[in-house]
Amino acid sequence: MPEPILGPPRILPRSEHSISRAHISKSALNVLYGLHKAGYEACLVGGGVRDLLLGVTPKDFDIATSASPEQVRATFRNSRLIGRRFRLAHVHFGPDIVEVATYRASHDKAEDEADARLDGDRILRDNVYGTREEDVIRRDFTVNALYYRIEDFSLIDHVGALEDIEQRRLRTIGDPEARYREDPVRMLRAVRLAAKLGLTIEPATEAPLFELGYLLETVPQARLFDEAVKLLLSGHGVRSYELLLHYRLIDYLFPIESATLAPERDRLIRDALANTDQRVAAGLPVTPAFLIAVLLWEPLQQAMAHQLVRGVSEHDAFAQAQEDVLRAQNDLLAVPKRFTLPAAEIWFLQSRLQRRRQPDRLLAHPRFRAAFDFLALRAQHEPDLRPCLDFWAARQGGMGLPPSSEGEAEAGAGGPRRRRRRRGRRRGASDAGPPTTVAAS
Ligand code: ATP
Ligand code: MG
Question: Ligand 2 centroid vs 395 CA: distance in angstroms?
Answer without folding.
Answer: 45
